[in-house]
Amino acid sequence: MSVLEVTREGAVATLWLASADRHNAMGLDFFSELPARVAELDADPGVRAVVVAARGRDFSVGLDLRGGLGDGFAEILQGGLAGVRQRLYKLVHELQSGFNAIHDSPKPYLAAIHGWCVGGGLDLAAACDLRYATRDARFSLRETRMAMVADLGSLQRLPGILGQGQLREIAFTGRDFSAEEALGMGLVNGLHDGGEALVAGAQEKAREIAANSPLAVQGAKRVLNRLDEAQRREALDYVALWNAAHFASQDLLEAFAAFAEKRAPEFKGE
Predict the structure, then answer these.
(1) Do 188 and 179 contact (CB within 8 A), yes or no?
(2) At 191, which helix (H) or strand (E)?
(3) CATH number of the domain that residue 209 is part of
(4) Residue 228 confidence (pLDDT)
(5) Of 85, 65, 207, 183, which Cα lies nearest the Cα of 132?
(6) Cβ atoms of residues 240 and 96 within 8 Å
(7) What is the pLDDT, as a whole number, of residue 70?
(8) 268 lies in a domain?
């Protein structure tokens, strides 16, 4: 079954995360389908703006290690040598590709965020051009709490949205933060009361954008993207290399054990 759905109203398409029973956790099915969906929307001249929204209770709780990703990570944790690490390096680039496609698309993408937006969910939101949220939405860039380095785009894209100080604080602490705080730091462009109002508001903003010359809107996006394109691509490759080299650690094993045992982890930097 598809984990993504597309609906269309005039020049505005809505790309739905449609794994409500999994809280829109992102497994291999999501990462394999996303680039193709974005390519389809790019190829449709009638689509001038895209809203990214989610079914169910949460926008996304991040990576789904039960969705096919866990097997590859388990191989790394067993102490794989160069060949295994090369596969991890390749895998990270494959997982980045869908979010890169959204960022690189000439068409504006607007994220409509409700419930939890964690890890990969925040990577997806960061790849979009505009972000809106419900007042009760919650955010977290929590990879450091799991002894990981976020590698799907947040660390590369959020500096231009939040600024270095705020990004470093949420990345280093991995803490949860509210929609009101997200608005204050510039992560989201506006807040709405409830999911229906959120999607309607994002679609209305998309229609406002779509009413303008598509050549001019797409040109503006391309020019803005050009400002940091080389640096961003280099940084995405660097984090893939970093995680390929450093992913396997005793701290990561401790994070998984602590999660399973419902206790606080005790990290030793090993």
Answers:
(1) yes
(2) strand 190-192
(3) 3.90.226.10
(4) 83
(5) 183
(6) yes
(7) 58
(8) no
Q: Answer for the pair 116, 23: CB distance below 8 angstroms, yes or no.
A: yes
Tell whether 270 is covered by a domain.
no
Question: For residue range 48-60, what is the model confidence (pLDDT) as tens digits?
Answer: 999 999 999 999 9
**Percentage of the chain exceeding pLDDT 90:** 76
Range of the domain at 153: 4-261
Q: How far apart are CA 61 and CA 157, in angstroms?
A: 19
Q: Which CA distances in Å does 137 have to 41, 81, 100, 195, 203?
A: 27, 41, 24, 10, 18
- pTM for the full predicted model: 0.93
Q: Tell me: pLDDT of 85 over 80.
A: no
**For residue 263, with 0-12 CB atoms within 10 Å meaning exposed, 13-18 middle and 19 or more buried, which class applies?**
exposed
Domain count, the chain: 1
Residue 148 in domain? yes
Strand order in the sheet with 49-54: 4-9, 12-17, 49-54, 109-113, 130-134, 190-192
- Identify whether 194 is part of a domain: yes
Contact present, 110 and 205 (Cβ < 8 Å): yes
